[in-house]
Description:
This protein is an alpha/beta fold.
Amino acid sequence: MLNLFGNEPTHTPPVPQAELSDEEVLVELTKIKKELADQVVVLGHHYQQDDVIRFADVTGDSLALAQEAAKLDKPYIMFCGVHFMAETADILAKPHQKVVLPDLRAGCSMADMAERSDIDECWSFLTSATTDKIVPITYINCAATLKAFVGDHDGAICTSSNAQKIIEWAFKTGQKLLFFPDQHLGRNTCYKMGLKLDEMVIYNPKLINGGLTAEQVQKAKVILWYGYCSVHQGFTLDHIHALRKNSPQTHILVHPECNFEVVQGADDAGSTSYIINQIKKMPAGSSIAVGTEINLVNRLAHLYPDKKIFSLSPYQCLCTTMYRVRPRWLLASFRAIKEDKPINIISVSEDIKSSSLKALQRMLDLSH
Ligand code: 13P
Ligand code: SF4
């Protein structure tokens, strides 16, 4: 049976080191990480759980980790994040380096919402519907094959930290934008830049021609793919209304993967790094409701006990796929390297790599 997103389900592998307690796993990880310090560098996305983040040599959002991956030299990059991030690291890695994703099931539901064949179909419809130059922009949260498509069609990749810069560049080189897979980051960023909502249309890959007519494509400036983050989708306008009523002094800060109404209703919106920096700057005693992944929100709450930091949603908005990277899986990957039989290697084929690299390099160049 196919899963919710129409893909083959992945099967749960046996839990590694089942004979060790959680505490013993952490003790052995501390030891083995020191032993392999010359060989392995650990990168951790901010949404990872604390017991993984404590082993990270570098923590960051998607942009910071991609920038870091391009600079590293150690033979193994242990990527504690999700699949598309590890692929990005492999595209940017040097030939002698290997990228390890401690649990291969750590995917991203948003990335799974755009397949290469659907993008190809969309592109042939759009380019037959208009003579305007369309620039494809993909959010970094996608498979390497989509990054390669963008590289081969003179587009660029963006993250939530640099989406505005990349879109500004795109409008200097073409008249229209195809933005995938996250409709919300595309819409929120373009609206902030002054585009009107009626200049943006949605392309739904499940419908014929995305549900669009050629005339709608001709009139639109931005074509947004019908994709979203199931975690950030959990924050609603009702949560904002409830807070405004019960705690009017609370500052509401959300990620641009949240939907348009939530971003408009919030006090401020920005990428994971932006959220962290804003919270850091806020005075002691501030009350801040945050619309992003719960591991980060809880970590910030512990880091700044003099501020009241909590999730905008009363429910746990957890990225369950990020959460698959657990200390046990990290330890299994370390042990395998020690035995010289590395596992969970993420390897992008050379042709996809060289096409994706064009789009990634453009992003890195534009991000300074
Ligand atoms: P950033 O790391 O760009 O903030 O994106 C958040 C996210 O959802 C990562 O998958
Ligand atoms: Fe994907 Fe959302 Fe998880 Fe980020 S938070 S990895 S976009 S599902």
